[in-house]
Design goal:
single chain, alpha+beta, Alpha-Beta Plaits, 2 helices, 20% helix
């Protein structure tokens, strides 16, 4: 599993709610593949920051910016400053065997 993270920092905090409503209303277009999961996060530290996480199965899609991720990032540019990145799993631990 790898993830594609698209973060947007809007010009004003009051733009976040309309952005989230529009994002929820987006319908999947003609994409080559669908992510294994899609999640949207709102920052607790920065009122006007939202992150979208697309999780992908590495057996189906190689780790790189995807067509749907690029489309979402382009769409988010209308709201503010966008950062688009790719993440792969480096360490996995469960609470039972985790010790800092």
């Amino acid at each position: 599993m790898w993830v594609e993270v698209i973060t947007v920092r809007t010009a004003r905090p009051e733009l976040v709610e309309p952005l989230l409503r529009e994002l929820a209303a987006l319908q999947e277009g003609s994409c080559d593949a669908a992510p294994a999961s899609f999640a949207c996060y709102r920052s607790l530290d920065i009122d006007n920051e939202v992150a979208i996480r697309l999780a992908w199965d590495e057996r189906k899609i190689p780790a790189s910016r995807t067509r749907i991720g690029v489309l979402i990032a382009k769409w988010l540019e209308g709201y503010g400053m966008v950062h688009h990145s790719i993440w792969t799993l480096s360490l996995y631990s469960t609470p039972k065997n985790f010790s800092p």
